[in-house]
Description:
The chain has helices at residues 2-32, 34-50, 57-70, 74-109, 116-138, 140-148, 152-175, 179-205, 218-251, 255-283, 287-292, 297-334, 341-357, 359-367, 372-393, 397-425, 429-437, 440-456, 464-486, 489-507. It is mainly α. The model has no long low-confidence stretch (mean pLDDT 86).
Amino acid sequence: MNRKVGVIYSNILMIVExxxxxxxxxxxxxxxxQAEYGVYQLVTSITSYLVLLDLGVGNSVIRxxxxxxxxxxxxxxxxxxxxxxxYYLLIAVVAMGISAVILALFPTVFAKGLxxxxxxxxEKLFGITMCAAAFSLGTSAFSNTVIAYERFTVSKGTVIxxxxxxxxxxxxxxxxxxxxxxIVIVNFCITILTRSIYVVxxxxxxxxxxxxxxxxxxxxxxxxxxxxxxxxxxxxxQINAMSDQILLGIFAKGASVIIGIYGVGAQILQYxxxxxxxxxxxxxxxxxxxxxxxxxxxxxxxxxxxxxxxVFMVLSVIWVVFALFGRDFVCLWAGKAxxxxxxxxxxLMLPTIFSYSEGVGYQLLQSMAKHRIxxxxxxxxxxxxxxxxxxxxxxxxLKGAVIGTFIALFVCDIIIMNIMYKRQIGIRLTVYFSGMxxxxxxxxxxxxxxxxxxxxxxxxxYGWLGFVANCGVMVLVYVLSMWLFxxxxxxxxxxxxxxxxxxxxxxx
Length: 508
């Protein structure tokens, strides 16, 4: 029951996060202006790296607290909470120390990319965001304990309510003329409030007090063993997601506007990833049982095809629609000045389709205790991304940064990972891709053709109404063609089953 509630809350949170940022971001860009928005994006990117000081321990807290809870071992939970609380408080101090060094280096590192006034603003913004990050890290043991106890009303319900509150208060702050400083102060206050709720809940509702007596440091070795490759994955993913904006700030002259444009494209890409990860997480149950049952390579292959098809058929049509009308969306949503953000999003969405569609392969490797392989591949991808981006920025700052990231993702997330799936799992790639593409590619071609015809009608002159009409026709063509000859019986059952259950409830 708890897991069903968790899925419901996850769905609500995903909708709230996507809708709130989609509605708020255009207002934020127009209020701040491209340059200040670019500085804000740069500071956000730098601050996000501080979260890596978690070192993957958050997953360990969830795992071990849940384990001790299942064993009904309260004392072990308290001791574990004690050692992780000490760890996170130390990490918070380290985060503040590192932040102080970064703050001191701001004028030197970003002298080329930002003006003197923009550097001063960035320093002020970072001073606040680093305090929020440190407080967040220092209380992570408590937030992860709430998750381990599957108290989704608290863990996710709190985030849902405070996300809405944050947007509303941020709008007021911008209307009152506080600019980016107002935004980071609001974020700081919401972080303090959220984390305080978790701490109070663990201490006074769960009645779980961290024990600092006879702390067993043997936990540390166990945690480190479990977390090491998760950390590698986190570091590499963060570099691939955020390094472009930081590198632009360092190496591109007058970078604030460019970073702002890149940030708009990155925001659209994040919506795309959120949808992909949601489908992946919902479709993953049973993989561990499959591995433990000793399934053979052909069984893994059929499971990969089954799940990959569903994710691919959703993400691929979003990309096709965006490829044809995404430029209109960017101009309507973020303004004509950010038109080049279309290039950022449409290029980086392409490898993302495959990495998320094939995410089941990564889950299988993890279930087979081979998760070090994708972690190492991600590190290679991040290193290649940084090198290519630095080189290509000198050719063309915005396009160079995007193309460098695209090449790194394409080579590592698609080519190398598929080779790993073949070698480590036994997937026959020709069978896998023909199975994944079967019926979907012709439907995508029909959809693209319909979009091409809609372009001839020039409905873009009608603004949002024209955009919705164009996209609506493409989606309708895709849905009808997929139902007629694209989907197999299993995929149709996924859609029909909940509809039949709903019909029964209505007829009762």
